[in-house]
């Protein structure tokens, strides 16, 4: 109770309230515009938050992160275009409801489900906090290294059918992070004797290039889409009543959201997939899924909105971001010398509780705002794409240039912008680069510190030596988890390979073999015969020209 | 290459080979420089060597980049790949617009450059509607006021503002 009160005390400032309001309303607006998304907005706003108090800056960013998915549901339901990537599943059941004239019901249900997911996850985390506060100090350098390694492996393996390039891009992120002056031996790494590379490549410059500038280029290069939206008539309160009729689906989906959010590198998509599958399998009308099922909509929206609060757990408790948005937030902590990790949970628990309370309040604010302002808000969907591109390009300048007033940073950001554009065109993942950079830095520091007293491999999992040696249980669990994730991935890749081979062989029956053999034989005979004929002709022609 | 392999590939097919080859070539080139660009310090543990993490990064880039290239369902270049590269090159124009904007702000000033840049870029994108051009100029003013005047984001005053008379000079340098 004391913690709650001290948390509220931290939030009871006019600038924090203003930040909450700006973040939540801004987040909904950004979410509702297809093509912007929270990553772009957070990347642009990051440097602006550096001059603010940590709690104010983080509240703005949390507001955008936590509320963008509410806004993203609007275009997903009304025009079949997800506002943010995680609203893609909402289109499955939201848009069919709109086509049969139930847009108001779908929007209202999406808001209610998102609200439930958000509140459920914050309450869960507040209840878990004492447990986390006990577990977090058990994480030393070795455990944090293993957790970061697990995070990077999970991010890579989460990109099914793109695992190899995701791994290559994560390694690219690790490499970028090493450029510059190495902090222990003070030796230069890959600076090519260029002074601008000595300080290294700033994470925010890369983030702005890969997320904001690349998105601007993508929009500028594309074409505008014509959208027609009808006004919603009537209130939006009915969704809360309808949600109350599906407590099981909502509860399980929110739980999946919390669990998946806490695991680094997993996030919204897996949570949504699992809850949607669960809802479909246990539904009395599974055939309705994908054709406007209210349960499907509840599962998708509840799960995705339960993730942001849960994703703060690895960030706050261990200092390990699980995805791009929390990786960006980590830089706000570093700028203010607030180091997230076990120490934060031990010494500044009120700060952590204040962040959870901010998330709780922002969910209420967003719901109230949306219940009354949706009709005005849906107009933002009509903003032309290329105009948006120009706006993002102009705003990106603020983000990059205000960091160090460096033209070189802008050139680097533009280069990463072009790289991000190419990756977007080819549908290749961008997030592994960012997480490679952040987690690579953490792994380097923690492995160096962790290996200082380690002589043999088993020592890595032990404290002390000889008779005083004791096992480090968290390190062992994390190591086993890494092995399990890798084993599962190899199994899945092998199954995919077998499936592909079977599909290949099933379409390649024996007659095609004979056909191919005959074709090769025919080409050979023709070639041989051709050679013979050509030889004859050349001999003939030689004879005809030889007059001697 | 089979139809099944092609249908399993995520995203567009054209351009994948060129990207994979370029990525692998760059990674291999960087890895070949590791002896020159990093140091091996004596009496230092293997994991604490300055060369260790660049080697992990670049080694992974080469290994996984090569496997990705080998795993691609189509490894031959065709005209669709060339077309895709042309689209990538088109984006360089927007990068140049951005760099021109970056270069001009410290000389002419954040407010004047933004108010001109936004409508100009909107016009370049093919919008000729006057209302949209005015809206973009207005948006430019809002962006400057929000970030520079209100949030005090660190953007230096322009060289041109030095020629403004008396108090106006300080006011413009501070706010616009």
**Derived structural class of chain B:** mainly alpha
Number of helices of chain B: 8
- Indicate the radius of gyration of chain A in whole angstroms: 28 Å
Q: Note the overall shape of chain A.
A: globular
Q: How many β-strand stretches of chain A? A: 4
Number of domains of chain B: 2
Percent in helix of chain B: 55-70%
What is the terminal-to-terminal distance of chain A? 117 Å
Encode the helix/strand succession of chain B as letters.
HHHHHHHH
Description:
The complex is a heterodimer of chains A (548) and B (176). With 548 residues, chain A is an all-alpha fold. Chain A contains 22 helices and four strands. The longest helix of chain A is centred in the C-terminal third of the chain and has 36 residues. In chain A, 53% of the residues are buried. Chain B is 70% helix and 0% strand. Chains A and B meet through α8, β2, α10, α18 and α19 of A and α1, α2, α4, α5 and α6 of B.
In short:
Chain B: It holds the Pfam family TctB. The complex is a heterodimer of chains A (548) and B (176). Chain A is an all-alpha fold.
């Amino acid at each position: 109770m004391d913690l709650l009160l001290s948390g509220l005390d931290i939030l009871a400032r006019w600038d924090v309230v203003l930040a909450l309001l700006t973040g939540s309303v801004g987040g909904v607006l950004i979410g509702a515009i297809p093509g912007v998304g929270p990553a772009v907005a957070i990347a642009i706003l990051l440097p602006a938050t550096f001059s603010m108090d940590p709690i104010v800056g983080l509240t703005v960013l949390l507001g955008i992160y936590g509320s963008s998915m509410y806004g993203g549901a609007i275009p997903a339901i009304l025009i079949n275009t997800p506002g943010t990537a995680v609203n893609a599943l909402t289109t499955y059941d939201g848009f069919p409801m709109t086509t049969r004239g139930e847009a108001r019901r779908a929007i209202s249900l999406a808001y209610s489900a998102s609200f439930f997911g958000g509140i459920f996850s914050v309450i869960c985390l507040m209840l878990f906090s004492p447990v986390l506060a006990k577990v977090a100090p058990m994480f030393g350098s070795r455990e944090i290294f293993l957790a970061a390694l697990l995070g990077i492996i999970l991010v890579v393996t989460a990109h099914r059918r793109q695992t190899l390039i995701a791994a290559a891009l994560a390694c690219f992120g690790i490499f970028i992070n090493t450029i510059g002056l190495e902090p222990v031996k003070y030796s230069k790494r890959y600076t090519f004797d260029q002074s601008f590379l000595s300080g290294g490549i700033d994470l925010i410059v890369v983030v702005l290039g890969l997320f904001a500038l690349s998105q601007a280029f993508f929009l500028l290069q594309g074409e505008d889409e014509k959208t027609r939206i009808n006004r919603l008539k009537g209130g939006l309160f009915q969704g809360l009543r309808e949600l109350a009729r599906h407590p099981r689906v909502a509860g399980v989906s929110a739980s999946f959201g919390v669990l998946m959010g806490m695991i680094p590198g997993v996030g919204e998509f897996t949570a949504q997939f699992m809850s949607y599958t669960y809802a479909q399998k246990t539904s009395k009308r599974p055939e309705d899924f994908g054709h406007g099922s209210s349960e499907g909509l509840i599962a998708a929206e509840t799960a995705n909105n339960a993730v942001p609060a849960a994703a703060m757990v690895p960030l706050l408790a261990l200092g390990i971001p699980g995805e791009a948005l929390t990786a960006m937030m980590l830089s706000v902590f570093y700028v203010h010398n607030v180091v997230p990790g076990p120490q934060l949970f031990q010494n500044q628990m009120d700060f952590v509780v204040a962040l959870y309370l901010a998330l709780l309040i922002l969910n209420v604010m967003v719901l109230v705002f949306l219940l009354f302002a949706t009709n005005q808000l849906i107009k933002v969907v009509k903003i032309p794409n290329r105009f948006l591109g120009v706006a993002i390009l102009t705003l990106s300048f603020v983000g990059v240039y205000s960091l160090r007033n460096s033209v070189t940073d802008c050139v680097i950001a533009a280069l990463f912008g072009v790289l991000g554009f190419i990756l977007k065109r080819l549908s290749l993942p961008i997030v592994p680069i960012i997480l490679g950079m952040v987690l690579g830095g953490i792994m380097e520091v923690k492995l160096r510190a962790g290996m200082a007293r380690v002589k043999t491999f088993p020592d890595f999992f032990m404290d002390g030596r000889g008779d005083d040696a004791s096992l480090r249980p968290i390190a062992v669990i994390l190591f086993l988890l890494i092995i399990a994730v890798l084993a599962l991935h190899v199994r899945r890749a092998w199954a995919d390979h077998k499936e592909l081979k079977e599909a290949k062989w099933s379409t390649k029956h024996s007659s095609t073999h004979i056909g191919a053999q005959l074709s090769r034989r025919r080409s050979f005979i023709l070639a041989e015969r051709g050679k013979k004929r050509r030889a004859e002709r050349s001999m003939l022609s030689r004879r005809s020209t030889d007059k001697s | 290459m089979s139809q099944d392999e092609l249908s399993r590939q995520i995203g567009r097919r054209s351009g994948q080979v060129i990207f994979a080859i370029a990525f692998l070539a760059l990674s291999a080139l960087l890895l070949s420089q590791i002896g020159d660009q990093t140091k091996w310090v004596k009496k230092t543990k293997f994991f604490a060597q300055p060369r260790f993490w660049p080697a992990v990064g670049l080694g992974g880039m080469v290994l996984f980049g090569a496997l990705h290239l080998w795993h691609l369902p189509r490894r031959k270049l065709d005209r669709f790949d060339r077309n895709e590269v042309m689209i990538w090159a088109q984006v360089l124009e927007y990068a140049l617009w951005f760099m021109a904007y970056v270069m001009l702000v410290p000389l002419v000033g954040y407010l004047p450059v933004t108010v001109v840049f936004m409508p100009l870029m909107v016009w370049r994108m093919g919008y000729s509607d006057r209302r949209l051009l005015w809206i973009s100029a207005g948006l430019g003013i809002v962006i400057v006021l929000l970030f520079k005047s209100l949030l005090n984001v660190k953007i230096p005053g322009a060289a041109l503002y030095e020629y403004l008379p008396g108090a106006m000079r300080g006011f413009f340098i501070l706010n616009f």
